[in-house]
Amino acid sequence: MDVAKDQFASSRLLARALEAKDYTTFFDFNSRTIEFTSPKGALWKTSAAHISYPFNSSEVRRFSINKNLGYELAQEAGFSIPNTRYLADGALSDDEALQLLQNYKTLIVKPNDLSLSKGLTVNIKTTAQLKQAITYARTYSPSVLIQEQVVGEESRFAVLNGKVRAALLRQTAQVVGDGHSTSAELIKQENKAREKLVFEYISYPQLTAAIIDESLMTDQRIPTQNEVVKLARSTMIRGGCSVYNILDQVDKSYVDKVEALVARLGAGFVVVDVFCTDFAQPAAPSNHWLIEFNSAPVLKLFYGCRDGNHFDIVPLLAEMIDNHLDESSIDVSR
Q: pLDDT by residue (tens digit) across 28-73?
């Protein structure tokens, strides 16, 4: 959604929190920038759609934008990453494509410098699909990443002032068998549960043919008790995923690894997206993988946890911004 129209865009949420601290704000509809002026006159100007927080250096944003750089930093810190082939320019030869598929069976392709699943293709199993995915990714960026598709769920670790404060599990669309209901009936039950999810900033969509395979809507197979039936692979709420804050459930080893990784980056605020087979188990080289850093994540996601265990991140960021501007007493616009 256009940030000018989205009243729950991150910059809008921050503006309301800072205005409560007597800041003045000015949104420039032409340049799509937003200006914040503190009561003491310090100025912070940033893109309204892609926020550059004043306490983060340009280096933090560079690592956030360029996934390949982020992977290099992660490896230096002992963090696992998916097997990755960086394709800066040129074509992938037939032999290289075949070798990648033989090595890793299933691949994904994504632009090197974009987020929000733009240009992403998953479940690639043939050379024709691989080349088509590369062409598609390059409609967004000339450099692309070809990666082994790993199995697990994604969690977003929010790190503020060096400490992990939240871990948002972005559980892909799924239902769990009860031993007597068909898959189609379980999907209807899930959609009824979604009708009751009413949050101020986030809306959970119904699972329809626009999100999941249409055949699943009439699937008469009866999953066994506690059998998980995966319905889609998207980790976006609009793509059917569900969000839960699982910080009190993740093994401490992930918190330690994420904090150590961010310490190398030196970010005041950043989120670290991690793919894992089971966050309750200790981190090991073969059970978790870095997806990316993001120095300008969508803040309303923290207010869409299905169990109501939201993380009230906006006031904390507003306080960090205010403290930084107060201490700098200079124009930190960028």
A: 878 889 999 999 999 999 999 889 999 999 889 888 888 888 888 9
| Mutual angle of helices 313-328 and 10-19, in 10-degree steps | 60
First to last CA, the chain: 23
**pLDDT at position 330, please?**
46
Using the Cα atoms of residue 5, residue 11, residue 12 and residue 13 in order, give the sign of their dihedral: positive
Cross-strand bridge partners of residue 124: 107
C-alpha distances in Å from residue 126, one per residue of 100, 104, 262: 10, 11, 37
Largest CA distance in the chain: 65
- Taking the model in full, what pTM does it have? 0.89
Q: Give 4 or 87, the one with higher predicted confidence.
A: 87
Task: List the CATH code of the domain at 83-149.
Answer: 3.30.1490.20
* Distance (Å, whole) CA 206 – CA 190: 9
Superfamily of domain 59-81+151-172+241-294: ATP-grasp fold, B domain (3.30.470.20)
Distances (CA, A) of 301 to 8, 51, 52, 278: 10, 15, 18, 22
